[in-house]
Specification:
Number of strands: 0
Radius of gyration: 28 Å
Number of helices: 19
Order of helices and strands: HHHHHHHHHHHHHHHHHHH
Length: about 450
């Protein structure tokens, strides 16, 4: 198959030079040749060069060949160098991968091959030598696809080869880390694949769970919602998230007692976060509906562990109102939510200064005249709790102000033109650092 693709690519290049005066035909052939060459596996030999579709006809053959040779070399240099310097231990694992994915005929897996696949998936996630493998996320998806194909081809008893859920969780976490590194522009991760697409991953996971390769769980959907919040367009992400949650509800037949498919509190928080980040006019109404829905599920199931009202969800509702509601409505609603946040402090061990920072930010951005003063009241309470508690008790450590807390107010005072108050707050930071013995507060 690779040889046929190489011949087709060369044929397209020949047609390019014979029809270079036809601009449309030239671009079509070049783009098709590029697509075919991308499908070829890199084996270490010099890549066949093809002309640039956007290059002018007057560009010399040598310049075009040099440009494409550099392009292919930069794309595969990291991977080729890694395979050259790979240790025998790593090469042994890669040989195992090739045997599992390529060499062994479909439908012939025995218990030994299933165990080898599990070991390889775990090594690709955690082993220090193998976790640096280029395209390791792609390899993990290949192994899962092979296991899924093996199960469907042989029609195994669904209980005999249902994989532990932590394996799928590890692959999804690797995918999440890869997507985040791509979005941050890390050099060796800029070449994305179809498997990095959130919709592709969602369909894969649903197929695995439908065919009982893994036990169904809300966790994959929650993680995909988290990725959407980081990498998707904020204006489009909540609508994609809404479709995911709708699919979960349909799979559970809208029964909140269905722990395998029904959304949980993490799902609701993920979707609320998408709406809060969007700043769309309808986002306050949407997050309020989500909060009411979560409360309804908790009352119906009497399960406060699966459907708790957490500090994160309250903060997402505050941020949605701060960005998109009428200033008076936003100010009043955020004040109510701040009181609920304080009431949750004894029950929510995860509550810390981050939640109060988000509450302060929502107040200073809601455009109400008293918003900044109300936020300053929260800051004073946080400072007082630390100073009166001596910085020793658990509560004061969790809700103590940080550099980020003070930066919210200094920026707000600057936008309001209240520079003296900004400077006074900056001086207070240094004073508080000395009294509380906390060097992290030194400006």
């Amino acid at each position: 198959r690779s040889s046929l693709r190489m011949l087709a690519a060369r044929s397209c290049c020949c047609r390019y030079w014979s029809h270079r005066h036809h601009e449309t035909l030239r671009k079509s052939n070049v783009l098709r040749a590029q697509s075919l060459l991308r499908q070829l596996k890199w084996t270490g030999q010099q890549a066949t060069t093809i002309p640039n579709a956007n290059a002018p006809p007057s560009t010399s053959v040598t310049a075009i060949q040099s440009r494409f040779q550099n392009r292919f070399q930069s794309r595969f240099q990291f991977q080729q160098q890694w395979f050259t310097t790979a240790t025998p231990f790593v090469k042994t694992w890669m040989t195992m991968k090739n045997r599992l994915v390529v060499s062994t005929p479909l439908g012939s897996f025995q218990s030994r091959q299933w165990e080898e696949a599990k070991q390889l998936l775990a090594a690709l996630r955690t082993h220090p030598q193998i976790s640096s493998l280029p395209n390791r996320v792609e390899l993990q998806w290949q192994i899962l696809d092979r296991l899924h194909g093996e199960m469907t081809a042989t029609k195994y008893n669904t209980n005999s080869h249902c994989l532990p859920f932590h394996i799928l969780r590890g692959v999804l976490l690797s995918w999440r880390d890869s997507v985040f590194s791509i979005s941050s522009g890390e050099k060796h991760n800029r070449h994305t694949s179809a498997n990095n697409n959130t919709l592709t991953v969602l369909h894969k996971v649903e197929r695995y769970m439908n065919d009982a390769l893994f036990e169904p769980s809300p966790m994959p959907y929650n993680l995909i919602l988290h990725v959407l919040a980081k990498v998707e367009d904020p204006q489009q992400a909540p609508f994609r998230g809404q479709e995911i949650v709708k699919s979960m509800l349909e799979r559970s037949h809208f029964n909140p007692n269905n722990t395998f498919h029904h959304p949980d509190n993490v799902t609701i928080y993920g979707l609320a976060e998408l709406w809060a980040r969007s700043g769309l006019p309808e986002s306050p109404q949407r997050v309020e509906e989500l909060l009411q829905q979560l409360q309804g599920w908790r009352d119906e199931t009497k399960d406060s562990k699966r459907f708790p009202i957490t500090s994160n969800i309250l903060c997402a509702v505050m941020e949605a109102h701060g960005k998109a509601s009428d200033p008076t409505v936003a100010y009043q609603r955020i004040q109510e939510l701040v009181q609920q946040l304080k009431a949750l402090r004894p029950q929510d061990d995860a509550q810390d200064s981050t939640h109060y920072n988000r509450a302060c930010h929502a107040l200073v951005t809601c455009r109400h005249d008293q918003g900044l003063e109300a936020a300053r009241t929260i800051l004073d309470e946080m400072c007082r709790a630390v100073l009166e508690g001596g910085g020793c008790n658990n509560t004061s450590r969790r809700i103590k102000p940080t550099q980020h807390t003070f930066s919210i107010f200094i920026a707000a005072y600057g936008r309001a033109g209240r520079l003296r108050e900004a400077q006074a707050l900056l001086d207070y930071m240094g004073q508080m650092a000395e009294e509380a013995g906390d060097s992290s507060l030194i400006p």
